[in-house]
Design a protein that fits this description.
This protein is α+β, with helices and mostly antiparallel strands and 148 residues long. The protein is built from 4 helices and 5 strands. The protein has a single domain, classed as Cytidine Deaminase, domain 2 (3-Layer(aba) Sandwich). The longest helix is centred in the first third of the chain and has 15 residues. The relative contact order is 0.17.
């Protein structure tokens, strides 16, 4: 998806942070290795100090070894030495009209690292949604379920 593919997507061009996150996620999406599905996804994570870390999906002939864009972005974020308390916002973009939503595994994975107040922005060609991990995964598995 190029910027021109957004059609009626209402992105406030005065919101420099959202624009930066979207552009970085689009760059990441364009690098996705989607040899089998042809369905690229890009993710950007905004840190509280204003840096943006990205990820994209990486497919494998053995589908179970595929790495989703969300998990790739978090792996990059953690590898760069960031702490989970440093996450401000997350943006996910895909080549579909409606806002793209993380799969169930990615929702559970993300819930390990983000707090309830982290804004998650899901973006498609024609629309976007601002949500949270509580809305995406209201009854998630947490530390409270670990054995005593």
């Amino acid at each position: 998806m190029k910027k021109s593919d957004f059609g009626s997507l209402n992105i406030d061009t005065n919101d420099e942070i959202l624009t930066q996150m979207l552009n970085k996620a689009l760059e990441a999406k364009n690098n996705a290795y989607v040899k089998y599905s042809g369905f690229p996804i890009g993710v950007s994570i905004l840190t509280k100090d204003g840096n943006v870390v990205t990820g994209f999906n990486i497919e494998n002939a053995s589908y179970s070894l595929t790495i989703c864009a969300e998990r790739a972005a978090f792996a990059s974020f953690l590898t760069q030495g960031y702490k989970t308390t440093n996450i401000d916002k997350i943006l996910v973009v895909g080549d579909v009209d409606a806002p793209i939503s993380p799969c169930g595994a990615c929702r559970e994975f993300m819930s390990e690292f983000i707090h309830d107040n982290v804004e998650i922005i899901l973006v498609g060609k024609k629309d976007k949604i601002k949500t949270s991990i509580n809305e995406l995964l209201p009854h998630r598995f947490t530390e409270q379920f670990k054995g005593n």
